[in-house]
Amino acid sequence: MARVQARLGLIQAVLALCLLVVLGRAAQVQIVRGREYAKEAASTRTELRTLEARRGTLYDRSGLTLAVTQELYRVGIAPNEVVERTALVRVASRQLDVSAAALKRDLASGKPYIYFYGPFTATDVEPLRGFKGVHIEGVFLRTYPSQRLAGRVIGRMGPDGQAASGLERALEGLITGTPGEQVVLKDRRGRRYESPGRLRKDPIPGNDVVLTIDAELQDIAEQALAETVAEFDAQGGDVVFLDPRTGEILAVASQKNGQPDLMAFTEPFEPGSTAKLFTAAALLTHERIDSSDRVSNEAGTWKMPLPNGRVREIVDEHAKPGMLNLAEAIEVSSNVVMAKFSERLSPVEQYQQLRDFGFGSPTGVELPSESRGVVHRPERWQPELSRVSVAMGYYFEVTALQLAAAYAAIANDGVLLTPTLIREVRSPDGTVVYRHQPEPVRRAVSPEVAAQLREFLRGASGIGGTGSRAQVGAYGVLGKTGTARRVRNGSYVDEYVASFASMFPADDPQLVVVVKIDGPKGGLYYGGDVAAPVVRTMLEQALASRRVSIDRARLLGGRPAEVATTAPKRASAQPVTSPRIVVSWPVPADSGAPEPVVVPKVAGLSVRAAAAALHRRGFQVAVAGPGTVSGSDPAAGTSAKVGTTVRLQVE
Fold first, then answer.
1. In terms of domains, do 449 and 483 share one?
2. Which of 7, 75, 83, 371 has the most crowded CB, counting CB atoms within 10 A?
């Protein structure tokens, strides 16, 4: 009996101990670690998912899409949920472009989930939405409809979904948007099920941005640069189009070693004779010269005496004998005369004038990594040598954009503006939240000095000037050529930078155009031979296109001499409503009745090249769409009056 009682007591003690263990474990699970386990359990049943926000769209100034985020889709199929398997196989194989036999095998294989990455369009997945077991997941994909147009400026997205370069990176804070949140249900196998009732926060799309870029002008600039680099076997170059009244960058193209680049923003160069205008500005501002002042050009070669008893030889490439004034020195780009005139300025005065035009400082354009250029402080200048070098466009470096902005200041009556690539910012509902207004930096020169500098440019690009090959039609181009030696390993070598900085039209300029070609080969390397003709070609092509942002009311409002010098409101870009384009070429009102002109042969040319050839002879052009020209009406070789519309047949 005693043994039985002992055994019962032992059993009771063991049971009591087990009960205590169970109660202790329950207390640990429910009280001590209850929240932790509840959270872990919830995480196996639900998942907090981030909803990607649509990235804002980038447009050109006329509304052409340059970068856009499209919503595409991926498709998952849970075989155990499928009810209409035969119908699903038939529809899915057609919409997702997969093998019906392979899909049928996958559905019967016991796989818990079948995933199709795609991405697929809304049209592709719409017929699948009614099937049970089909789960459609939206994804965003950044695309560039215009492909490589202004590609380096616009930038690209990196493989991690983050902006990697260009405006995509610079405008990250504006166009990214705010992500949303959604709770997604999961089963024990981890498969996700969307639940509309569990949406916690809607994503907010990013702002849309209208750029100042004119897509048509950008295409003209890129093609002209590529053709010129190929023609002269050059190492690269830059083209910049700028609106001098607003600071808006209408087109910018750079090429280096056969690839698109951002050199116009990032790589400074010695500007050569295009910078002689800034020395002239300092001379006029400080009243160190007047129209009667003349000095000898020493027959094109001057041995300038130096303080140490040595001499520095200065040579004119375009020598004009005799005594020259400042206007004539700029017209023929005389190094000798500009060097002599520069002796009337102190280094501080020259330095300050360069700084007033924005050199040595970033322009403030929205692209990252912009170069400030190089302008040495006057205390670092060597006596005589540096002052003369600066007068000839050496001993300081500028970017193509800085040079364009400085010439825009001269066109804008002396006021330097901040260049910009941003025209408007619009909220997701289309409300304009920002619209660019001209941003003055400083007054570089007085309006009177600016007007005098424009007259100097008129001579430099006129008959007898170094930039005469840039002239376009009756409205004229103001501009200055530059030809600068390049530096390698600290020494000047027989390689050149050919450049041309210009304004169009000559009266009331609407465009500032800068062209720079690096290292042209083949015997031609002067700015007047290499860069100036590129400006003419591009302007002819721009005038041949009604879509380019040229205010034709200002351009065609009267004879060139009567064009107003005030800046009326810019006409807003109008959408093209018809593929047919009729272009009028400006002819002076007093040209009288011109003699008939022979229609040139344009078969085999591109539409743009054919239009340029016809415009040069005074014809108007009508064409339906792009392509290669197969013929014209009137036909090549026939005579027609100036102003006749020539219709191009295009393949």
1. yes
2. 75
Query: What one-character-per-residue DSSP string does 187-255 give?
Result: -TT--EE--GGGEEE--BPPPEEEES--HHHHHHHHHHHHHHHHHTT-SEEEEEEE-TTT-BEEEEEEE
d(CA 556, CA 568): 13
**Is 220 a member of any domain?**
yes
Would the pTM of this model clear 0.70, i.e. be above it? yes
DSSP H or E stretch at residue 494 = strand 491-504
What tokens appear for 651 in the block? 């393949």
Whole-number pLDDT of residue 260: 94
Q: Which residues on neighbouring strands pair with residue 461, listed in sequence order? A: none
Q: Has residue 568 got a pLDDT over 50?
A: no
pLDDT at 608: 66
Quick one: pLDDT band at residue 564, thresholds 50, 70, 90? very low
User: How many whole angstroms from its chain centre is CA 572?
Assistant: 20
Q: Are strands 134-143 and 639-640 parallel, antiparallel or unpaired?
A: unpaired
R_g over Cα of the chain: 35
Q: Which of 186, 211, 236 is the last residue of a domain?
A: 211
CB atoms within 10 A of CB 142: 14
Tokens of 272: 């050569």
Exposure string over 464-495, b if 16+ CB within 10 A, otherwise e: ebbbbbbbbbbbbbbbbbbbbbeeeeeeeeeb
- Locate tokens 């697929």: which residue? 120
Determine the structural domain holding residue 416 and report its residue range.
215-563
Quote the number of domains for the chain.
Answer: 3
Provide the 10 A C-beta neighbour count for residue 609.
19
Angle (nearest 5°) at CA 370 between 439 and 444: 40
pLDDT(580) > 50: no
Tens digits of per-residue pLDDT, 232-260? 999 999 999 999 999 999 999 999 999 99
Q: What is the pLDDT of residue 263?
A: 96
CA–CA separation, 472 and 616 (whole Å): 9
Calpha distance 486→324 (Å, rounded): 28
- Residues 584, 554 share a domain: no
CA-CA distance, 224 to 232, in Å (whole number)?
12
Residue 353, helix vs strand vs coil: helix
CA-wise closest residue to 409 among 348, 377, 369, 363: 363
30 inside domain: no
Residue 210 contacts residue 424 (beta carbons within 8 Å): yes
Q: Is 274 exposed, middle or buried (CB count within 10 Å of its CB: 0-12, 13-18, 19+)?
A: buried
Structure tokens at 79: 């075989």
> Tell me: the pLDDT tens digits for 624-638?
556 688 888 888 888
**Average of pLDDT values for 115-140?**
85
pLDDT band for position 40 (50/70/90)? low
Phi, psi of 492 (to 5 degrees): -75, 135
Residue ending a domain, among 534, 563, 592, is 563
DSSP codes, 556-612: SSS-GGG--SS-PPPPPPPPP-SSEEEEPPP--TT--SPPPEEPPP-TTSBHHHHHH
Angstrom distances, CA of residue 567 to CA of 411, 554, 570, 603: 11, 9, 8, 41
